[in-house]
């Protein structure tokens, strides 16, 4: 377990021991952040000021984005891209925060990509209170997730281009992958938006007006991403249907040509089989022109069948 305690807003940012951070009550605010496994150790470093409901929310095995008020504090859960690639159906990792005046406890089971950028802002003096910290996480998570959502749309555009060119090979797997990723992202992007909108409407004294503006801006970005993911999912479903129809059309067309060839050779096979019987009395069996006569007859019959198919408009693409 990696545990970091930082004193922020009282001069330069400086580290504290987890025990010092849990008991600190001076100026500025303390951010106690736990990362990776070992969440059972949270009570020993969090202090006695965390309600049981908030503690359960911080240590829950499964979470979804949410924002709930508990007296003068708030439980804020968000989901964002991981710092390293993960093989996980959820695709996004969670950060759980218990925020109140003077202190923020946060927990992540896996490293969050936004944490590094938030640390830089903190070292630069851009974060001075708990509201700034929450707004910074909301802003950085949305900024890092936005390009990934845009890439899904761009990849789907490429698939549509290939489908228009009737290049349908290997498209089915790509479209299925895009659709599954869009569903996985939207599962948490829409609740992220709802959680931030709920937080922006709460009247905490540690949440300044500029923090609310940044949180609303991040919520709007999440809302736009949710709409984009919904569009990607619907476009993927439509594209999958078009791909299925196109493949069925190709199969039907190939089946038609096979049927045409079989229809042409069916009477020819009958003629050649009839003339090839090993019995006496076959007409013109000894005539020198008989072979070419039969060939000409077969050719005329084949052309007649093709003409009939053309007249019936069965040869059109």
């Amino acid at each position: 377990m990696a545990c970091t305690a930082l004193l922020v807003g009282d001069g330069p940012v400086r580290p504290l021991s987890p025990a010092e951070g849990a008991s600190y009550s001076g100026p500025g605010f303390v951010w106690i952040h736990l990362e990776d496994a070992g969440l059972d150790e949270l009570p020993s470093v969090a202090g006695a000021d965390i309600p049981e409901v908030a503690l359960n929310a911080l240590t829950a095995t499964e979470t979804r984005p949410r924002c709930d008020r508990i007296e003068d504090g708030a439980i804020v859960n968000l989901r964002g891209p991981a710092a390293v690639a993960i093989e996980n159906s959820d695709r996004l990792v969670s950060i759980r925060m218990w925020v109140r005046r003077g202190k923020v406890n946060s927990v992540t089971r896996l490293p969050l990509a936004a944490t590094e950028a938030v640390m830089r802002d903190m070292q630069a003096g851009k974060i001075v209170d708990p509201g700034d910290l929450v707004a910074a996480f909301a802003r950085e998570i949305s900024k890092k997730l936005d390009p990934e959502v845009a890439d899904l749309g761009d990849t789907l555009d490429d698939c549509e281009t290939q489908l228009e060119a009737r290049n349908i090979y290997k498209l089915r797997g790509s479209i299925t992958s895009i659709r599954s990723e869009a569903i996985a992202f939207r599962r948490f992007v829409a609740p992220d938006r709802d959680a931030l909108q709920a937080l922006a409407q709460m009247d905490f004294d540690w949440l300044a007006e500029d923090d609310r503006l940044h949180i609303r801006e991040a919520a709007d970005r999440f809302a736009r991403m949710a709409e984009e993911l919904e569009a990607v999912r619907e476009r993927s479903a439509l594209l999958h249907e078009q791909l299925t129809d196109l493949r069925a059309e190709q199969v039907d067309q190939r089946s038609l040509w096979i049927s045409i060839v079989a229809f042409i050779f069916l009477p020819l096979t009958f003629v050649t089989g009839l003339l090839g019987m090993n019995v006496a009395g076959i007409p013109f069996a000894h005539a020198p022109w008989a072979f070419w006569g039969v060939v000409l007859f077969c050719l005329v019959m084949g052309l007649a069948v093709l003409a009939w198919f053309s007249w019936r408009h069965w040869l059109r693409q």
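The CA atoms of residues 41 and 236 lie 44 Å apart. The mean pLDDT is 83.
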